[in-house]
Amino acid sequence: MQGTVLVVDDSAMMRKVVLRVLKMADVEFEAALEAGDGNEAMALLRANKVALIMCDINMPGMSGLQLLHQIKEEKLAVGVPIVMVTTESSEPQVKEAILAGARGYIRKPFTVDHIKNNVRPLLAA
Amino acid sequence: MPEANAVLKRFNVEEFLSPATLTRADAIVAEIFGMMFGLEIEVVEASDPGPDAPGSDERTAVVGFSGAMRGSCHIRMTGQAARSIASAMLGGAPIEEGDDSIDDALGELCNMLAGGWKNGTPGLSSECALSPPTVISGRNYKVHMIKPSVKVSRLYQFDVHTLHLTLCCEDLESPQA
After folding, report:
1. Which of B59, B112, B117, B124 to probe by mutation at the A interface, max A CB count within 10 Å?
2. Residues in chain A closer than 8 A to B6 (CB atoms)
């Protein structure tokens, strides 16, 4: 697929896992950017155009939900699908993420099929 | 998380000590190992020390719970077992001894386990938050809970390795609390 994917997670291991599973789900991009928290992600988004953002919620510094609000405030990544990938799956958190601009929500642990079913339709749209 | 002025319903210690706590833990452990690592894992009797030699290098990952339940989730295994987990997370890629990704993988495993367990526990899903994981190397350490607490433990075996899981919960109704 054309464009760049941004993976935001405080775990470098989990960022690699997300990129590997995206590839296994045939969601492969020309380039990948990685950020360890919301602040790093914002810096990358101010300097780069991306086609997909995969984002954790619980991170030190700026959390995933704070990042969603910041992206909206600065009008960055307009129209770019943002998918939350997190262990937190309570209804209020899912609702808050969707209201703040997330287009998808994947609970850890996840399979290749979860990524296929939740990410591919967003890119086709 | 609940609003700041909402009355938080404390998680009941009796409920924590019920068999459902470990049943939920068994389910999430099996789910994570199956989905993320492609490994089978089973419960072993606590009296069995498991195939990992005692005294070998050990790693412990800890994630804290706060909110409706205050406590922690600990997982303990040998360094070799943690290395095999890190490798499995990357689809079998070789991992050098001492690589930072070993502790990272163990912390993530503990995070998924703690998150999965509390999400599956009625009354905790949205009322309990997780701390970022901490990883400890070595075995000669003690964890001191500030408040009286209760714990449940389980030993699992995957491949030739064991995983020791402990869930701790503060007992705020204890006379010592």
Report:
1. B112
2. none
What tens-digit pLDDT sequence spans chain A (125 residues)? 779 999 999 999 999 999 999 999 999 899 999 999 999 999 999 999 999 999 999 898 899 999 999 999 999 999 999 999 999 877 888 899 999 999 999 999 999 999 999 999 999 76
| Helix axes of A91-99 and A64-73: crossing angle, nearest 10 degrees | 20
B83 within domain boundaries? yes
- C-alpha span between B144 and B29 (Å, rounded): 25
- Hunting for tokens 């319903």 — which residue is that? B9
Q: CA angle at residue A66 from A61 to A67, to 5 degrees?
A: 85
Q: Please name the residue ranges forming H helices in B40-142.
A: 79-89, 100-119
Task: Report the distance separating Cα B158 and Cα B89, nearest Å.
Answer: 14
CATH code of A4-113, in short, is 3.40.50.2300
Residue ranges of domains in chain A:
4-113
Instruction: Report the number of distinct structural domains present in chain B.
Output: 1
B66 close contact with A: CB closer than 8 A: no
Of B89, B105, B115, the CB nearest to A87: B115
What is the domain extent for residue B88? 13-170
CATH number at residue B116: 3.40.1550.10
* Burial (0-12, 13-18, 19+ Cβ within 10 Å), B153: middle
pTM of this structure: 0.89
